[in-house]
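Review form for a predicted model. The reviewer records the input and the model, then writes brief findings.
Reviewer: anonymous (R2)
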Amino acid sequence: MEFFDVINRRYSHRTPFTDQPVPDEDVRKILQAGIQAPSGMNCQTTSFVVVTDPELRRQISHVLSTPATQTAPVILVVLSEYLITPSGQPFEIEDYAAATENMLLAATALGYATVWMDGMTKADKVNTEIRRILNVPEGKTVRTILPLGVPAETGAPKPRKAFDERVHYNAF
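Model under review:
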C-alpha cells in the first residue's frame, strides 16, 4: 500500500476482530516500526509487551472491556520510561506517541486494524492492574494498549476538519 494511502485509510478500530491469527512475522514488522520511531535525544524510552497468551488477553479484556480487546488475537502494550536527558528534559511522552503512531500505520499497511487506547490506561486502577497482569517492572509506565487483528468489519476514518481550518501560513 502506498504511504499516503496508509495514512488516509488508518482508523480507530473499536469493534470485534475475526479469529484469524496475526503471524509473528507481521507482529515483528509492526513492532520494528515502533522501534524505528523518532526518540528524544535517542534515549529510546519506549518498550513493548506482546500479549498473545489467551489467558493474559482475557485478563486484560476484563480490565479494558471492549469488543476489540475481547476479540483481538494480539494485544500490544506500549510502555515508557521516565528519563531525564542530558539537556534536562524528559521525552517519554513524545517517544511513546511517535512509536505508537508508527505502529498504527504499519498495522494498516499490513491489512490489520487497531486502536490507540491510552485514555483508559490513564486511570490508576486500570494501569495498576495491567502492570500486575504483565509483571511490568518499576520504572516502566503502561502508556497504551493496541488490540490488533483482522477486523470483522472494516471501518473508515472519521472526517477531519478542512485543511484551511487547521493550517495557517506564516502567522495564525
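Findings: The CA atoms of residues 35 and 115 lie 18 Å apart.
Further findings: The chain has a mean pLDDT of 96.
Recommendation: see findings above.
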